[in-house]
Amino acid sequence: MNHVFRKLPVTVTQQASILSPSLCRTTPSIQHPVWCTASVGDREYKGMPTHGIGRWKYLLPRQAPKKKKDKTQMKQMVSATDTAYGTLNVKVSGYDMTVVEHYSQYIHNLCNRLGVQVAESYALPTKSTEVMLMQEQGNKMYVDAVLKTHQRVVQLSSLNTSLCPIFVDVLLKNQPEGVQLSVKEHTEADFQARFKARPELEGLIAQINQ
Fold first, then answer.
1. CB atoms within 10 A of CB 157
2. CB 3.0–4.6 Å: which of 42, 81, 94, 130 could bond 38 by disulfide?
3. SUPFAM superfamilies recorded for this chain (predicted)?
4. What whole-number distance in Å separates Cα of residue 83 and Cα of residue 64?
């Protein structure tokens, strides 16, 4: 009995080797798993989904939706008294934006030093002016240059009447070349001048309201 059982596995292995020679390969050792190699098609993660990798926004707390900004409304004007002016606009305009911007900053800093209250400081829309020339022979006009006028406004409130002449005199003495300076009371038309006109949009709104 023992002799038969000993010969049986030998004959089975011989038949297996004849039928399929690929079965005679040496299997990798369990003690050394580093030696095991696999083809690219045998990777386990090849068919796994990768959605969500690198995303982090879901970790942040949810924030309330931002409200739409309301239209800018005109601030209440300060009324003039016997000892102080009301709301005044110091307007600076010129073709060189750098000079206009620096001069408006100088006015703002001067107001801070003299204790004059600055209600607001803003820029007006840039205006473009085309310079047209006529040809020597002919009546056709062509654009020779485009001049852009930059404007800045420093809005003052409650300027003392005794300080106003000194304040204006200092501004005029430090006024750079090519820059225009004007001081006037603030009106509703000055507030509307801050916004660009959109006639097409206004026309569509008028048609909808009809």
1. 18
2. 42
3. Ribosomal protein S10
4. 48
Decide the pairing of beta strands 141-157 and 87-94. Answer: antiparallel
Give the Å distances, CA to CA, from 196 to 151, 201, 206: 14, 11, 18
Residues 6+ apart with CB under 8 A from 35: 28, 29
Q: Are 93 and 100 in contact (CB under 8 A)?
A: yes
- For residue 13 the two structure tokens come to 């292995």
CA neighbor of 104 nearest in space, from 147, 151, 149: 151
As a whole number of angstroms, the distance between CA 52 and CA 43 comes to 21
Q: Which pLDDT tens digits describe the chain residue by residue (210 residues)?
A: 444 444 444 444 444 444 444 444 545 444 544 444 445 545 555 555 665 566 667 677 787 777 776 666 777 777 788 889 989 999 999 999 999 999 999 999 999 999 999 999 999 989 999 888 888 877 888 888 899 999 999 999 989 999 999 999 999 999 999 999 999 998 888 888 888 777 888 888 888 987
